[in-house]
């Protein structure tokens, strides 16, 4: 199966990460505000972006997971990333994950990027169900998911331990038919 790994939206291009992205990637993940609800602390290791880019590029090649760099067309710079992880091909499901450089929050960029990612997941990869595992206090993230039609399905207690602190998760889900009816409603 040949997939199309460049996704375009009015303001953005989503493409696999590549060497040269290191500084922009670090600027996203060295920010404690961005990483506040992540399952790992803010990045401090200067070698980390290069390692991550190599891992992510290899994962695209192996079809293991797909983390796209989100590039702002106006500047050509990477402002975030979003992807599909923990893919279960037999069950046709995967998990979405995303982060945006804080300077670019509140402008609808992640909404635009995730719309393209959902189309990639449901059309190109033929997924049946997408999930997201979110810290219940992460209002920006739950808002982003709910705007896309994801439903809150349940609370998973004390699921993560980060830096000695214990966190709950809320699980969000979006079924293919729900996404399709959202697409049909948007077209009318
Ligand atoms: C989660 C995260 C990506 C959301 O970013 P965001 O910019 O709020 O997301 P969206 O693209 O959905 O933007 C929607 C906001 O932009 C506003 N907006 C402005 N112009 C817009 C436009 N043209 N279209 C849509 N929304 C627009 C909306 O009103 C909304 O603001 P509101 O939440 O105050 O109502 C961001 O907070 C982040 O990176 N957080 C840290 C990482 C993280 O926690 N990731 C989740 C764990 S996997």
UniProtKB/TrEMBL annotation:
Q: List the InterPro entries hit by this protein, alphabetically.
A: Acyl_CoA_acyltransferase, GNAT_dom, N-acetyltransferase
Q: Does the keyword Iron-sulfur apply?
A: no
Q: Which residues form the N-acetyltransferase domain?
A: 12-177
List, alphabetically, the PROSITE patterns matched.
GNAT
One of this protein's Pfam families, by short name? Acetyltransf_3
Query: What are the alphabetically sorted keywords of the record?
Result: Transferase
GO terms assigned for molecular function: acyltransferase activity, transferring groups other than amino-acyl groups
Stated name of the protein: GNAT family N-acetyltransferase
